[in-house]
Amino acid sequence: MTTLKDFKAKELVQLLYPLFLYYIVYTFSNLLFLMLFQEQFGKLFCLLLAALATLPFIYLEYKKVPKSGDYLLTKKTLIRDLGFAILIVIVGISLNVAVSHLPLQEISKGFVNANNTLSDGELFVRILSNAIVIPILEELLYRGIICTRLNGFCKPWISIVISSVLFGIMHFNVIQFLYAFVVGLILGFSYIITKNIFVPIFGHGCTNLIVILYFMN
C-alpha cells in the first residue's frame, strides 16, 4: 500500500478535485434554479434540481476511483449489509431525537435556515430530494470517492475520520457538523467494511426518510 510519505500532488488533486467540482456545480446551479423557480416551487425544489445537475459529474468521478476489492453478494454479506444499514438508521435517528430536545438549535441560525430549506416543499419533493437524490450524491462523493481515495494512503480509521470531517463541514453550521460527523463515522465504517456503496446510500436515505415522515410533519 502507498503510504502518506508517498502522497504526491497528483493524488492530492484526485482527492480535492471532486470536492471542488461538487461545490462549484452544486452552488452555481442552485443559485440559477433559485432565480428561476424559487417563488413558484420553493427552495428545496431548487436544491433538488441542483443535486440532479451535480450527480452525473460526481458519478463519473466515482467511476474513476480504483475499488479496494470486488463485492460478492451472498446470503452472509446481505445480512451483514442490512445490519450495517440498520445501525446507520439507529444512530441517525437517535441523534435526531437528541438534537430535537436540545436548546442548541435555538442559537444556531444556520441550523434553523437549513431545516427551513429541507422542509420547504411538498412531501414528494422532500422525499425525492432528502431521502433519494441527496443521499446518493453525498455518499458517492464522501464515501465512494473521498474515503476510498484516502484509504489508499491512510489507515482505514484515518480515512473515515477525515471524510467525516469534510462531510460535517459541508453542512455549514455547528449543530449539523456534529451530527453529520458522527453519522459520517458510521457511514464510512460501513463502507470500508462492506465495500458496498449501496449500504451507506440505503442507510443514509432511510434515516432521512424517517426524519421526513416523523420529525418534519
Assembly state (oligomeric): single chain
Query: How many domains make up the 3D coordinates?
Result: 1
Write the H/E string, N to C. HHHHHHHH
- Report the sheet-strand fraction: under 5%
Alpha plus pi helix count? 8
Which sheet architecture does the biggest sheet show?
A: none
What is the averaged pLDDT score? 87
Number of strands: 0
Q: Low-confidence stretches at least 5 residues in length (pLDDT < 50)?
A: none
What is the strand and helix layout of this fold?
Elements: H1 9-41, H2 43-64, H3 75-100, H4 109-118, H5 123-151, H6 156-169, H7 174-194, H8 198-215
Helix pairs in contact: 1-2, 1-5, 2-5, 3-7, 3-8, 5-6, 5-7, 5-8, 6-7, 7-8
Report on the structure:
The protein has one domain (4-215). It starts with 8 loop residues before the first helix and ends with a helix. It has helices at residues 9-41, 43-64, 75-100, 109-118, 123-151, 156-169, 174-194, 198-215. The model has no long low-confidence stretch (mean pLDDT 87). It has eight helices and no strands. The protein is globular. The chain is mainly α and 217 residues long.
Task: Briefly characterize the structure.
The chain is about 80% helix and about 0% strand. The chain has helices spanning about 10-40, 45-65, 75-100, 110-120, 125-150, 155-170, 175-195, 200-215.
